[in-house]
Amino acid sequence: MDADALLNPERRMLRVMQQKENHEWTLEEILSACEWTDQAVAVGAGHGLSNTGLVNTSESSSALVRLADEGLKAKENGLLEARIWNWLSKSDTPDMKGLQSEFERHEAGPGVGLLKRLGVQLENGVFTSANPSDVSTKIEARTAFLHQLPAASESLDGELLEHFKSRRGLIESVISTTRTWNITPKGQSVEPESLQEKQSISEITTELLQSDAWKDADYRPFDVTLESATPRTGRSHPMQALIERVRSIFLEMGFSELVDDYVQTAGWNMDALFIPQDHPAREMQDTFYLENPKSIDLPKHLTDAWGAIHEHGGETGSVGWGGDFSADTSKKGLLRTHTTVNTIQYLAEHPKEACRVFSVDRVFRKEAIDRTHLPEFHQIEGIIMEEGANLQMLVTTLKTFYAKMGYPEVRVRPAYFPYTEPSLEIEVKWRGKWLELGGAGIFRPEVTEPLGISSPVLAWGMGLERLAMLVLGLDDIRQLYISDLEWLRNQPIL
Ligand code: PHE
User: Fold this and answer.
1) Mean pLDDT of the chain
2) Which residues are registered as beta bridge partners of 414?
């Protein structure tokens, strides 16, 4: 047996135990023979020696009965029945009235009950007892019982134990563990010389490093394979952490963040984006329209401009969608179905200034909840407006974003949105498969002209929860929002 790996307390304990081969050591014996005062040191050393098979540990648990809060008070001031009995024996007026003036109501009531059960009677308001010495004996036995505690439950009088168990707060029972140790043949065969305690260093200090002593010092080894408790500290929800990460990537790429309301008009959410008024996505089945505000006013010049574009293309050379445009439909209040509703308004307010703007925010669609759909989710939205902006720049920006997120393989495919031309779908490669994460494109003249926007606008909108599923390796989107603490604790730091 190699004693090298033993810690100093283990060496000392084994050395002590080698002196009495067939002895069962109690904790007290170990403490005194090793000259220790701390029980934890002895228990720890015993545990270490057991693990290496040098000693055997026997554990036995027993129930220990001790005084609880009320019991401690009763030991100090006397049991309630003792105090009342004492008073009765001395009082000139041993009646209910006297009792009530001497003891508070919360004691008088239960006190009478206790005495009755001890054989004291209450006749016409006066307390009498057929056998006063029997009452005294019983009360003394109860008092003596309390003074015996703490004690092992088997050593106590069963009847009195049951009696006190039935009374609130007087006694309680705790489990206590007793350990004993005896040395094994393997422990006995360890060379006593190898059990010398060594000066080993368990803490590296500046002084040690500054001197030369560290070179020849003996270091206490750490067992990194031992089980240990995982520290639990507060932390961000993974969705919040992901939002922060997305945010910092766009900020780093020179974008400014836009935060805006999610109560919007159909006009900005759809008409401004040249989504036809009879488009199926506008139906109640897809969009949450509001009861309050049912309608939100819009300036007439806007509804007129959108009307002209939708009906015949306005000044853009487009032929529009035809049909009749309704300004009332434009004014309907709704919960935004995409964050493009906010970037388009930003552009309307700053039609001539080049910009890079993003948002990470909540949108709403009337979806049935399933593995990949939620009625409330988040979009990562962005626009770049500047002279000469082009498709290449759009694709590069999106690729850069996903590369910074840790997904270098990105491809785009042709797609369709009523408000962009050309339009793209963005796909990211994950575990060998291409996954669609969002849409993008360049705003059409039908969108930009009525607002007086002069330069090309690159735009995109991507699903945040979709991205979260990739980052966290989920196959059910609902996992993100069910507040499963165990799962939340085990998520990686993003
Ligand atoms: N708004 C689109 C969506 O919700 C995404 C998109 C944004 C597409 C901007 C093109 C341009 O899916």
Assistant:
1) 93
2) 424
Tokens 């000139």 belong to residue: 92
Ligand 1 atom, smallest distance to 439 CA = 8
215, pLDDT greater than 90: no
> Which pLDDT band, with edges at 50, 70 and 90, does 1 fall under?
low
Task: Using the structure block, give the residue that is written with the tokens 């190898």.
Answer: 194
β partners of residue 361: 379
Residue closest via CA to ligand 1's atom 5 equals 461
Protein residues with CB under 6 Å of any ligand 1 atom:
338, 340, 417, 420, 439-441, 459-461
Contact between residue 457 and residue 235 where contact means Cβ atoms under 8 Å apart? no
Distance between CA atoms of 428 and 470, rounded to whole angstroms? Answer: 10
Q: From the CA of 441, how far away is ligand 1's center (Å)?
A: 8
Measure 269 CA to ligand 1 centroid, in angstroms.
11
The domains found in the chain, sorted by start residue, are 3-66+175-192 (1.10.10.10), 69-169 (1.10.10), 240-262+336-489 (3.30.930.10)
Q: For residue range 176-203, list pLDDT tens digits in order.
A: 888 999 999 999 999 998 898 877 788 8
